[in-house]
């Protein structure tokens, strides 16, 4: 295998490592959350990061003025084609994001 092929195989790995290194780690802040928020945080993180960064979600949530706006955003995201958010998960995700907004 030549150097070019090795480089092409490693590019996605380098991109993933760079993204992780520059990504803000939100897990520690959720350790201080109430138990129900802590239990729903991994699912929220997984669902939201399917389509975009968590930074983007938290930038929106931090700019939101109320829980209704968060709920509308999550419902909108759940209705998108690529979304893996199930209807029963919507209120749980809203609760997690609303906790983050209020902290």
Describe this structure in words.
This protein has 103 residues and is mainly alpha-helical. It has a single domain (25-102), classed as Cytochrome Bc1 Complex, Chain D, domain 2 (Orthogonal Bundle). It is built from 6 helices and no strands. It has helices spanning 3-22, 27-30, 35-48, 54-63, 67-78, 90-102. Helix 3 (35-48) crosses helix 6 (90-102), helix 4 (54-63) crosses helix 6 (90-102) and helix 5 (67-78) packs antiparallel against helix 6 (90-102).
Question: How many angstroms does the end-to-end distance come to?
Answer: 52 Å
Overall tally of structural domains: 1
Number of helices: 6
Radius of gyration equals 17 Å
Shape: globular
Helix fraction, binned, reads: over 70%
What letter string, H or E per element, gives the SSE order?
HHHHHH
Q: How many strand segments?
A: 0
Brief rundown of the structure:
With 103 residues, this protein is mainly alpha-helical. It has helices spanning 3-22, 27-30, 35-48, 54-63, 67-78, 90-102.
Write the layout of secondary structure elements.
Blueprint: H1 3-22, H2 27-30, H3 35-48, H4 54-63, H5 67-78, H6 90-102
Give a quick set of tags describing it.
103 residues; mainly alpha; 6 helices; Cytochrome Bc1 Complex, Chain D, domain 2; globular
